[in-house]
Design brief:
The complex is a heterodimer of chains A (118) and B (266). Chain A is an alpha+beta fold and 118 residues long. Chain A has a domain at 40-118: Alpha-Beta Plaits (2-Layer Sandwich), CATH 3.30.70.100. Helices cover 39% and strands 24% of the residues of chain A. In chain A, 29% of the residues are buried. With 266 residues, chain B is mainly beta. Chain B has one helix and 16 strands. Chain B has one helix at residues 2-14, and strands at residues 36-48, 53-66, 71-85, 89-94, 97-103, 106-109, 114-125, 140-148, 152-161, 176-185, 187-188, 195-209, 216-230, 233-245, 253-254, 257-265. Chain B has a twelve-stranded antiparallel barrel. Chain B starts with a helix and ends with a strand. In chain B, 42% of the residues are buried. The chains are: A alpha+beta (118), B mainly beta (266).
Chain lengths: 118, 266
């Protein structure tokens, strides 16, 4: 009887440990309408963009990129050939959609250039 | 007088530098889609020969828009005042409406340079004041090439004006060829990317046919200038010095010109 009780307790403890581990590993359960944390992107993303040749080009690029629903704000720098993008909360920036927007500004997105802002 | 009007109008079309330019030379890079460009200038010019002297001041106002990343349209109106001596004839009023469409034929953006080629077609619409406009159609076609190795810029522009295609003028009008080159360098000011000072050197060649003659009147201008940019705002100053010209009978010689301009993109 004692052995059976011990086995039951061991099973329950193992199950609880497993459940707790799962919660710790994958984070909290996502709220309604919010993307899971594991799939969301960092606060600011940096890309390399070619073709900007003056400060005036920065505004044209930002105007196009800010039209994306997944973009909260963007900042271009022609000297660094750089575009910083802040995604809206919980949203993911689709690189293909971003590239299309950059192309509308007559510029070229370096696809492999994605970096998280430090 | 008719001939002088044609020459004068030709000069006006010649200075119809479309919006996305160095100071007076159009460029081969079309702007972003949905981009608006406002531009206004104050220009002076003068011509003279043994018989007469002509001076003019102009205020062109231009609005451009990127219909797509491949097509740009631009409209321009000009208010002009001119005086002629002897006789002290002063005339002023709006000149013709001028519409231009530019197309992106080729564009390559790399880490080290940008190269763009953009042909354009344009025409005046004879809506100007009777005293200013020659009241006929003078369409224009051209090609712009821009090479931008990072902080430098080389812009080439060639265009041809077909005068009086409607045949409204009593005297047959010959065409006009323009070849322009602009060199400039961007000097960043401060640590931000917003401010730039850009010295500019433009070279403008003009060849204007004479009606009923195989000879053409030709001029060459060398024009130093400077542009200050702050973000989407630019202020231009250009001095156009005539350095050479043919000396045909009755041809008017060119006087130095000044251009002060303002550009804003939104």
């Amino acid at each position: 009887m004692k052995g059976k009780t011990m086995k039951t307790l061991l099973f329950i403890t193992t199950a609880l440990f497993f459940m707790m581990s799962t919660v710790v590993t994958f984070g909290q359960t996502p709220k309604d309408g919010e993307a899971p944390m594991a799939e969301s992107q960092p606060d600011t993303l940096k890309f390399t963009v070619y073709g900007m040749d003056c400060p005036g080009c920065e505004g044209g690029l930002e105007k196009q990129v800010n039209k994306m629903k997944s973009v909260k704000s963007s900042k271009a720098n022609w000297r660094k050939q750089q575009l910083k993008v802040v995604p809206t909360e919980g949203a993911n920036i689709e690189i293909d959609a971003l590239e299309k927007r950059v192309r509308k500004a007559n510029l070229t997105l370096e696809k492999e250039s994605l970096k998280e802002d430090e | 007088m008719q001939k002088k009007l044609i020459v004068f109008f030709g000069l006006l079309v010649g200075i119809a530098a479309p919006v996305f330019s160095q100071i007076s030379t159009d460029v081969g890079l079309t702007p972003a889609q949905d981009r608006w460009i406002f531009r206004s200038q104050y220009r002076t010019m003068g011509m003279e020969n043994d018989m007469m002297e002509m001076e003019a001041q102009m205020i062109p106002v231009m609005l451009g828009y990127g219909l797509s990343n491949k097509v740009t349209v631009m409209a321009r109106g000009v208010y002009m005042q001119r005086s002629t001596e002897p006789g002290g004839v002063d005339r002023s009023g709006p000149d013709d409406l001028f519409l231009l469409s530019k197309f992106r034929l080729f564009r390559k953006n790399t880490a080290n340079y940008t190269l763009g080629i953009a042909p354009f077609v344009a025409s005046n619409f004879p809506t100007g004041a009777q005293e200013i406009s020659n009241r006929t159609w003078n369409p224009r076609a051209g090609l712009n090439i821009s090479f931008r190795p990072r902080f430098m810029a080389v812009d080439l522009s060639a265009s041809y004006v077909f005068y009086d295609v409607a045949g409204k003028l009593s005297e047959e009008a010959a065409g006009r060829f323009n070849l322009n080159m602009a060199l400039s360098g961007m000097i960043p000011v401060g640590n931000t990317s917003k401010q730039v000072v850009a010295p500019v050197l433009e070279i403008n060649y003009v060849s204007e046919g004479r009606a009923g003659s195989e000879k053409s009147e030709q001029w060459l201008f060398v024009s130093p200038g400077v542009t200050y940019r702050y973000s989407s705002l630019a202020v231009d100053l250009l001095y156009q010095q005539p350095v050479w010209g043919t000396e045909l009978q009755g041809q008017m010689s060119q006087q130095p010109r000044w251009i002060v301009g303002l550009r804003y993109m939104f």
